[in-house]
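Lecture 7, part 2: worked example. A protein chain together with 1,3-dihydroxyacetonephosphate.
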Amino acid sequence: MRKKIVAGNWKMNLNLQEATALYNELNQTNFPNDVKIIVAPPSLYLSQFSRNQNYLSLASQNVNDNEKGAITGEISAEMLSAINLNYCIIGHSERRALFNETDAQIKSKLDLLLKNNISPILCCGETLKERESGNASTIVLKQISEATKHLSPEEFQRVILAYEPVWAIGTGVTATTEQAQEMHATIRTYLTKIIGDNSTEISILYGGSCKPTNAKELFACKDIDGGLIGGAALKADSFIAIANSFS
Ligand code: 13P
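Predicted complex, written out as structure tokens:
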């Protein structure tokens, strides 16, 4: 049975004091046993927090697409693995848009993560313009296939997918449950075509203005296995409420 997952992407928020307080509070929280809880703080804090992983698992928000070398300011998959990280977000729309990340780079990141025993949380999602022109599912499936089409079913099972419609990120506009479930079902159908029965084991998270008031309805959908949370992950009470939203 695939995992239920709630992951918090803190992005470039929270100073060290705030981040430590939030991490410690979440790390002492008794989350539901059947929900995997992951947080992705700014990378600067990962090493410190990783010594104290209790109820929480840690994710990096990024990794470089090269193994090592003269690439000032970057962090490799091997470095993340050395501090016992189990997850890493890749392909987030903010990185695609702000840093011009390509599908080819995202594929390299994914390969390096798998090689270092880190599960990639691969993000995909269309812009409003792409949705309005009727191309949303083509765009989303292309983003997934470009990064994963070379994987064996066994390798694919170590990947977590996150559907994050760009128009819903940080805007307060959530996809309706119908829109979200429809895209998740499209992704699941694609996965079944590619990797057969193994597709039922892949968790597909929803992200984009997910909050305590809409999480229950979203998580009740057949193909939505949890959430990748931005703004609402920055406060313990709202993040905990979301983690408790599975029926
Ligand atoms: P918001 O929850 O703030 O919309 O952000 C979603 C997101 O980008 C998570 O990666």
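Residues 16 and 94 are 23 Å apart (CA to CA). The chain has one domain: 4-243. Keep this in mind for problem set question 3.
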